[in-house]
Amino acid sequence: MSKKVNDVEIKQQIIEDVQRVNSNYLKDFPDGNLITRDYFRSHSKFKEKDILKYYGSFDNLKREAFKEDLDVIGFKKKLRVLEERNTILEKENSKMIKGSIIEEEMINLYKESLENIAEFKINNKELSIKEDKYRTAILQFSDSHAGELVFPQYVNNVNEYNEEICIRRMDTIFSVFLAYCKKFSITKCHLLLNGDLLSGGIHTELVRNMWINEIQQIFFMQNYLIKKLEYLSEFFNRIDVDVICGNHARVLPGKPYHKEKVQMNFEYILGKNLQMYFELLTEKKHNNKIFVEVPESSFKIATINGTRFLETHGDILMGAGSGGFAGIPFYSIAQSSARLYGVLHQINVKEENQFDHILVGHLHTSTKMPLFNGGFCFVNGCIVGTNEFSLTKIKSVAKKEQLMLIIDKDGRIELEKNITFD
Predict the structure, then answer these.
(1) What is the CATH number of the domain that holds 163?
(2) Which domain holds residue 13?
(3) CA–CA separation, 229 and 190 (whole Å)
(4) How many angstroms separate the CA atoms of 318 and 332, rounded?
(5) Alpha-carbon span 339 to 232, nearest angstrom
(6) Whole-model pTM?
(7) For the sheet containing 307-312, what is the strand order?
(8) Does residue 337 contact residue 310 with C-beta atoms inside 8 Å?
(9) Would you call 369 helix, strand, or coil by DSSP?
(10) Given CA atoms 186, 188, 189, 190 in this order, what sign does their dihedral have?
(11) Number of structural domains, the chain?
């Protein structure tokens, strides 16, 4: 009988001891709920074997010693879960409201845009040039980041960017491109809109430094390109336009995604608007020169005078991290392009699923690197120029250059020109 009484007393002593140690624990760790096993071991006067003998486990001891406290803690946890769920619902509701506002704004902007577009005209008269040697000119046009603001004082005065400068730089690119096409008597061109034409709003720092929001960026670039293409129609018999989506104009914020990577992108809307506009003019017999294609994939293989170019913005060829030399991950591009080539070959061995050269943007630094197949990867410069990210994070010079290639009738690269501008 005395042993049973003694066991009861020892169990009570253990409970009193764990409660005492727990009080000290909460003083040392005010944000804690209940004592941890390690803390109890180092501060209790009882040994581990005593706990196991009388309670079976440390958790059983806590349940016995802190019945009411555990109920309160459980209630607090449930309350915290409900609060978190409520926060999520509030965020989703905010997004829905914002989405409806954006949709309404987009419709209004689209109506205004259509009113302006109606004034544009295409010159469908065919050009006949005796010196025409059936060359095709390629202009890789990427990384204008329309909508982004760059203030000179934040980048050591190496660059400035706003709406006026953006338009001036784009005008210079097309003017130089047209001058070279006239010099080489070229009547056919391929315009590759290779992503990040729009700044987007995927990061809060971009949202804070915009001259126009994402929806307005679409119509700004759409109106500019329609005017420019219709002007170019006076000097070419055919203008093929490919619209490849970049990574900056993705609709959803946060990390880049792979499902619906192209379709959930504001540049996809831009491309589709351009495509529908010129297709409508074609149906009405007002356009027989300008043809726009918007791939549903993040890349396209375009055949120009028999030479196949893999067109992609470039983010799908990057490895983990930035790495590389001068901001160019040479090894990653070479490895990824070889693997993509192999995958396409396995899926379908037809020649149209292979490529000779690659055209990419994304890296903002023009360069040319040899590929495994004897071709080259042509990396485009940018229109936006150096910004805070490229200067302080990547520590790379963002070259204000855009690539122009002239392909002769046999598919050989006759001219490489990086069009520069201020």
Answers:
(1) 3.60.21.10
(2) 2-65
(3) 11
(4) 6
(5) 38
(6) 0.71
(7) 299-304, 307-312, 357-360, 376-379, 367-370
(8) yes
(9) strand
(10) negative
(11) 2
